[in-house]
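Subgroup meeting minutes
Present: P.N., E.W., G.H.
Scribe: E.W.

1. P.N. recapped why we're keeping a running log of single-chain structure predictions: easier to compare across weeks, and new members can see raw inputs and outputs side by side.
2. G.H. added today's entry (327 aa).
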Amino acid sequence: MRGPTRLLLALVPLGLVVGLGACSDDWFRGDTESFRPPDATVVDHADCFGPNTRSQLVEIGRNADVRVVEDDQSGYPPDSFDPVTVVRCELGRDAAQKPTIDTVTLDGDVGAVRDAFRVQSRRFRDGVFASCAIHEIVPAALWLVDTTGRAVELAWPARPCGYQDGPVQPLRNLREVDRTSESTVVADANTACDRQFFDQFERTDAAQVDDVRGRLERGEMYNPLDNELATPITDVGGLVICRSSESGSVSGIRLTQKDSRELMVAISQASYAPPCDLAATAIAQTTLLRADGSGGTDVFVELDGCRRALLNGYLSTPDWAIETMSR
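Output recorded in log:
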């Protein structure tokens, strides 16, 4: 017989704090347990064209609410499997800027990557349920490949309310040695944008601004910039920027990867915005995703009015960044 159900609520501060919450493992303490996923199935070759992988990569191009569906064959790296390379699946662009699905071979310290995936995952104990406002997305597909070409698909280590960030840096340290591409189709940027975002911003006074700044600096609030998996900055992919106006119109543009990275570096390094009581008539939104489908943090920007960005609190958006998102 199962024991009584316990409900945990991870409450996310509203207002100036980003509408994404994160739950640290310490917050839940005795309500979690360690587990090891089943071993991954060894297959003949790495495959970036399975239905789940293709679907997640195509959703990057739509700025959609991506849902990760792990393949049945993915799992823990088997003890007997000796990898020499990593294969990552990405959404790319050809010379004509048409979308492609790319099979990317990576070399380097593959052992460090393998070790990063050979850790214990954590989850809630039976009978414990939590309401977690969190948006973390793992790569569409990552494979370890041995000298014969055989491969295992990796399951990302889990934690309560999301995923561990341990594999991020070892993967970042690898270097690309080969890339093959196949054409695909993604939605037009205007088609991808179908929501309005005017409930994300509030008028602020000096006391509110100082309070949020202090809580962020003391680590009392979730800061998306501390979440390496969910918040790509210098490694973000080409962004879809959705714009909504007070009149009800919605439109979208697609930025190049170069412009996207410059934009996000500028916003992430911006200073806290001063108090402001102007109402915006146009708002931009984008979801930060890498080319491999990972990420998930939303960023909102007032295109007029206070001209603030909402990331780790309200930030002063550079004029050129406003122009880039408005064009």
